[in-house]
Amino acid sequence: MGLRHTESGRPLPLPNPTTQPFFDAAREHRLALQRCPRDGFFYYPRSRCPHCLGDDWAWETCSGEGEVHSFTIDRVGHVPALREYAPFAIAIVELANGPRITARLVDVSVDDVAIGMPVEPAFEDVDGITLVHFRPRA
Amino acid sequence: MGKKRAAIVGLSEWAPQRVWDEPMFSLEAHARLAAEVLADAGVDKAEVDGLVVSSVYESPMFGPSAAAEYLGLKTNFAEIVDLGGATACGMIWRAAAAIEVGACETCLVLCPSVIPPRPDGDGPRKMDFPIYLGGDAWGSPQGQFEIPEGLVAATPSFAMVAQRYMDRYGLREETLAKIAVEERDNAQRNPDAIFHGKPITIDDVMNSRYVCDPLKLLEIVMPCFGGAAVLVTTPERAKRARHRPVYVSGFGEHCTHKSITYAPDLLDNPIRVAADRAFKMAGTERSAVDMASMYDCFTITVLVTIENAGFCGKGEGEAFVSERSLRWDGDWPLNTHGGQLGMGQAGTAGGMGHATEAVRQLMGRAGDRQLGKADVAYVNGTGGMMAEQVALIFEGA
Ligand SMILES: [Zn+2]
């Protein structure tokens, strides 16, 4: 209901009015996050800042530079339609500007992933929407 | 002895099954558990005026009243609890608190996890594991930001806790394997355990395949069907009970997030606050604990829980586990029923199993795995991704 699936069964986001700007930016291969004037950046997109519940945030484009805070190698592909990508790395990325984002790591061998590894966003256009993964930063 | 708030006076628990031979509706399972737990306690149904349920499949809304109606109860307290793996422990303290403040006197706490018969009358049913765990609802942050990235079910999340722990403290995978092996040893004394008759070695665990690094297949619970229940009543009523009353002398609950992404600290888990509150309320020291019954969806869950519940310092879990035997006959008995790793994870009944085992031990009813001394038990539940955690202190009369 809150997802749509590609023909192969890949789950894709169904944006809503609050989250649409994030996906609009992603379509342009930009990472946009909301920034609260008191508490800084937060993720995921919300109607109000999760720290102060204020609604005077603004969208800002970020570099998305961060590092791997933790990760795992999914050897199975718990989402059946992602089995063709297994083994793949899932990481909690800590952005330099604060928030944590969990995403697949791409353009990297699963043997080379390590905590502390510098990463940046990697955009994948799929079936009319753009997903935000991360990849090693040069 | 902490304050005698309320007492557990009876239990019922079904052997977990991978394939459920006897399809039944959730309401039917509630009724069977209620009959069994009342019979075990020797308490008449007419005394029951409280009911706590976790899910009533045939009534997704109005669950408590649907169950009360089916069971023919007139309740002064009817509650539903939704804390994932911490649900059962959350149900027990809510029942105890309701009794303590006089909201009700005798309360059924029921956790069936069964599968209904099919409309076409077909036979036994296998577990169909819901990998999205409800995260695919419209508007769900998980559905938009995590499920498409592959973060589903629970294994990847707990694996990331383990990976972070290993990076920070240098944990050896063999230490996690030891937890799985010793819990499995305990299951050999529990005929109801799904892995009864199937002991394993450290090598077996180390040689099992990686599912989500660093977690391997034998460090992960097996989802099952089952059911478990307890009966909670007043200290006064408990004095006339058939078994040794088990007092709920302390409890604590803490929740900081849902998805592991937003955990304030992967290694500083909510159980730290919950356990501190429980021990303080009970007025009991950790050194007085005779047994620990800790939620064990994965081996890493146990290790970080031992630390965060305050049985050792941060980063000392490896030494703690290595230097002790966690077996029922060891020097630090943990999950003497085999835990969910050894017994199987039967939905919310799996979490209840940690409580029923502590009750069994404190009542002196644990059979071949009975501890020599069992007066104080530490019990906890972990819901979601180390997200919602509940600690309970049980004390025998
Ligand atoms: Zn704010």
How would you portray this structure in words?
The complex is a heterodimer of chains A (138) and B (397). Chain A has one domain (17-136). Chain A is 6% helix and 43% strand. Chain A is built from one helix and ten strands, in the order E-E-H-E-E-E-E-E-E-E-E. In chain A, strand 7 (88-95) and strand 8 form a beta hairpin. The longest helix of chain A is centred in the N-terminal third of the chain and has 8 residues, at 20-27. Chain A is globular and about 40 Å long. Chain B is built from 13 helices and 13 strands. In chain B, the strands form three sheets. Chain B has a nine-stranded mixed β-sheet, sandwiched between helices. Chain B is globular and about 55 Å long. Classes of the chains: A mainly beta (138), B alpha+beta (397). Chains A and B meet through strand 2, strand 6, strand 7 and strand 8 of A and helix 4, helix 5 and strand 7 of B. Bound molecules: zinc ion.
Radius of gyration of chain B: 20 Å
Q: Give a count of the beta strands of chain A, DSSP E runs of length 2 or more.
A: 10
Count of DSSP H/I helices of chain A? 1
Backbone shape of chain A: globular
**Domain module count of chain B:** 1
Strand and helix layout:
The complex is a heterodimer of chains A (138) and B (397).
Chain A (H helix, E strand, L loop, with lengths): L2 E3 L5 E3 L6 H8 L3 E6 L3 E3 L15 E5 L3 E9 L13 E8 L4 E6 L12 E9 L2 E8 L2
Antiparallel strand pairs in A: 1-2, 3-4, 3-5, 6-7, 6-9, 7-8, 9-10
Chain B lengths: L6 E11 L1 E2 L5 H16 L8 E4 L9 H9 L5 E4 L6 H14 L5 E8 L11 E2 L14 H5 L9 H15 L3 H15 L14 H6 L2 E3 L2 E2 L8 E9 L1 H4 L7 E10 L15 H12 L8 E4 L4 H10 L8 H7 L15 H5 L3 H17 L12 E8 L4 E9 L1
Parallel strand pairs in B: 3-4, 3-5, 11-12
Antiparallel strand pairs in B: 1-9, 1-10, 2-6, 5-9, 7-8, 10-13, 12-13
Bound molecules: zinc ion.
Zinc ion binds next to loops of chain A.
